[in-house]
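Contributing new records

If you add data, match the layout below exactly. Sequence lines come first and carry their own label; structure lines follow with theirs. Keep one chain per record. Anything else will be rejected by the validation script.
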Amino acid sequence: MSSKTLNSMTGFGEHITLAPIEGYRITAKSLNHRNLELQITLPREWDHLELGIRRVVTQQIQRGRVEITVSRVDSNPGVNGGFLQKGIESYQDLLLLKESLGIAEPISIEQVLLHLSHEKTPSYQPVDQNNGLLAVSVALDLLVKSRKIEGAALGEVIDLLAREVQEVVVQIERDRPNATEKTRAHFLSRLKELTQEFQSQDTERRLEEEALFYLSKKDNEEEWQRFKIHLTRFRLDLAEAGPIGKSLDFLLQEMQREINTFITKETQPGIFQPAMSIRNTLTKLKEQIQNVE
């Protein structure tokens, strides 16, 4: 059974744009979430692309908290775009103004900073829609790829745990008939021992009827059969492609509910202990399933 088609809900992708819209960094990351939640942060010249970006994301991802961030990249921050260089240019502007006006007072750092604060923010033209969405798709493809890589490793872990559960199920199936009969015989024997002084044919018949009625309340056959059905469905879904995290999570909850009831009704240690190990493995599975898309 292959489980390498699972997708993780966590991943990361980054792309630095090239011509004709160079100068932007696009990051796409995702975290675990019950449904799909999008958070998109864009510079002003990208605002008109938000709906298109949402559409591109929902076409590829169905679960997780996805964060798309577009930020401007300084083409040459070490020289032209550096704060120090801008400060020098501001000082030179103020020095020229001082000389032109014949002002004798020295230029202070406060005046330089005030000049910088009034510096005009550069204007940007709206980004072309096709090129913008294409650039976002590049970062998103990298995100999806990272989710698949992590999902493959995650699938191996989940598949291994499911196999462990199946192995214990086989063991219980082998030992359970003898354990059930042993419980019934032991219960009847103890009742007869305690009521020997009242023993008669009618009393024995009524005791057996009462014993069988009591044992029927302790019967966990239905829970066991339902558990096996859910386990079979779980392993089949695990081998399928696509976003199956919700389906696996539902089946796992059902398996946990059935095995818990099964355990509360079980009296034989030879069955009780393996069933407890199944419950422990299901807890491990639940932790892993939370990461599956």
